Amino acid sequence: MSSPWSRNATTERPEAPPEPDTEAAADGHRNGHAHRVNGRTNGHAEPNGDAEPNGDAEPNGHAERNGHAERNGHAEPASADLATEFGRPAGSAGSFADRPTTDGATAPSGSREPSVALAGAFGRPADAAEPLQRPRDGARTPTDVPDDFWAGETAERDPWRDPAAAVELGGPAVRESAPAPDRRATGPRLSARELLFGRRVAPSAIAMLAVLALLVGAVGGVVGHLTAEGAATVVDPGATLAQVDAGKERPAGSVADVAGRVVPAVVSIEVRSGTTGGTGSGVVVDPRGDIVTNNHVVSLAATDPRATLEAVFASGVRAPAQIVGRDPQTDIAVIKVNVADPVVAQLGRSSDLRVGDGVIAIGSPLGLAGTVTTGIVSSLRRPVRLDAETANVNPVIDAIQTDAAINPGNSGGALVDSTGAVVGINTAIRTLGGSDSSGQGGSIGLGFAIPIDDVRVIAESLIRTGSFAHTDLGVNAKSVTDGTSDGAQVLNVVQGGPASRAGVLEGDVVTRVDQRPIASADELVVAIREHRPGDAVTLGVVRGGRPLSLQAQL
Question: Which whole-number Å values give the CA distances from 108 to 33, 134, 399, in the listed order?
Answer without folding.
Answer: 21, 19, 144
